[in-house]
Amino acid sequence: MTPRMTRGALKHCQRVLLLGVGLALGAASPSASAVTTLRITHFLPAVASVQRQVLDPWCDELEARSGHEIRCQIYPSMQLGGIPSQLPDMVRNGVVDIAWTALGYSAGRFPRSEALELPFMLPAGGDEGSRIAWAFTQGPARKDFADYHVLAVHSDGGAVFHSRDTLIYDAADMAGLKLRAPTRMASRMIDALGASAVSMPPAQIADTLAKGVINGASAGWEVVPPTKLDEVTRYHTEPAAHQATPTVTVLAFLMNKQSYERLPDKARAALDALSGEGLSRRFGKAWDDAIVRVRAKVKNDPDQTVITLDDAAYNGMRDASRSVTEDWMASREGGVDRAALVRALEALVEQKEPALE
C-alpha cells in the first residue's frame, strides 16, 4: 500500500513539475524573442532637453504602446564614437537604429532641406517652425531622405547671437567678430552681416570662447544650459516675437530602413502612431518650453543682458543677408531647382496654424 502511494505521488509530482516548466517556457520564450531593442544616439548630454523632455518619455510610451515589444537603449554625447556630422551615416549603415541629428552638421548631405536654414526664412519658435519643417521635408525636400525612415523633423526655435564682450544691437556691431556657426547657411549669413563665421559643434563652444578663439556664437536658447554657454557669454541678441529668426538649426530623428522594416506588425504600428508631424511638433513644443525657461533664467541674472532687435535693426540684417538667399537660389548644383524650393517653403510659411496645446 505504502509503496504504491509513494510511486503515485512521485508520478504526480513529476507531471506537475513538467507542466510548470512547460508553462514557464511557453510564457517566457515568445516575449523574450519578440523584444526589439532600438539603439538611439545623439550628440548632446543626457541632461539636455532632447533626452529628458522628449526621448525618454517617448521611449516609455513606445514600449507601453507596443505591448513591450520595443524598448530603447539611448547613447547620448556620441558614446558610440564618431562625430555629429557622421550620425546620418551611422543610421544608414546600421551602426545604430535611430539617431537624432542636425541636418546642417552634415554639409551637403541634405541639399534641399538647406532652404529651411536660409536667413530670416522661418518664424522664431519651435512648434510652428517644426510644423513647417516636417511638411517641407516630407514634400518638396523628400528626396533628401530616400535612405532613411524619417520619424520627425523639427526646428530648434531659431538663432540667438551670444557674445562675450560685445553688445549686438544691429549688424554694425557684428563687424570684425568671430562667431560660431552651427551650419553652412548660418556661416554664410554671419559673413554677410560683417562677422567671420567659425564652424563647430555645440560641445566645443564654451571652451573655444573661454580661450578667446571666438567672440561669440549663433545658437538656440535650448543649447545654452548643456553647453554652459551662459558661463562664457554675457550678451544675447534675439529677434522680436513677430520677426523671423536669423537662421535655424533643423534637427531630424532618422531611422535605419531595415530596422524599421524588421519590426513586428504591432511594434511598427506603435512606432508609426508616435511619429510624424505629431512627434515633430512635440520636439518643437519641448524647445519652446526650454526657450521660455532658459531665457527667463538668463534675463534674471544681473550679469547677463538680453537684447531684442528693433524693427530697423532687423530690417537691416535681413537686407544685408538677402544675397545669401539669392545666391543659394541661383545655384543649380546637383540639378536641384532651389528657386522652386524657396517658393514652396514661402507658401508653407504663409499657412499659419495654431500652436499645439
Features:
single chain, 357 residues, alpha/beta, D-Maltodextrin-Binding Protein, domain 2, six-stranded mixed sheet, five-stranded mixed sheet, 13 helices, 11 strands, disordered N terminus, TRAP transporter substrate-binding protein
Characterise the protein shown here:
The protein has helices spanning 2-34, 49-65, 87-92, 126-138, 184-192, 205-210, 224-227, 257-261, 265-273, 277-299, 311-320, 322-330, 338-350, and strands spanning 36-41, 70-75, 98-102, 148-155, 160-163, 178-181, 196-199, 216-219, 235-238, 250-256, 305-308. 44% of the residues lie in helices and 16% in strands. The chain has a domain at 160-247 and 302-350: D-Maltodextrin-Binding Protein, domain 2, CATH 3.40.190. The chain contains 13 helices and eleven strands. The longest helix is centred in the first third of the chain and has 33 residues, at 2-34. The radius of gyration is 25 Å and the shape is globular. The strands form two sheets. A six-stranded mixed beta sheet has the order 7-6-8-5-9-11, sandwiched between helices. Residues 1-33 have low confidence and may be disordered. Helix 2 (49-65) packs antiparallel against helix 10 (277-299) and helix 4 (126-138) packs antiparallel against helix 10.
* CATH architectural arrangement of the domain at 160-247 and 302-350: 3-Layer(aba) Sandwich
| CATH superfamily heading of the domain at 160-247 and 302-350 | Bacterial extracellular solute-binding protein, family 7
What summary fits the major beta sheet? 6 strands, mixed
Order of neighbouring strands in the sheet with most strands: 7-6-8-5-9-11
Radius of gyration over C-alpha positions, nearest whole angstrom: 25 Å
Give the overall silhouette.
globular
CATH top level of the domain at 160-247 and 302-350 is: Alpha Beta
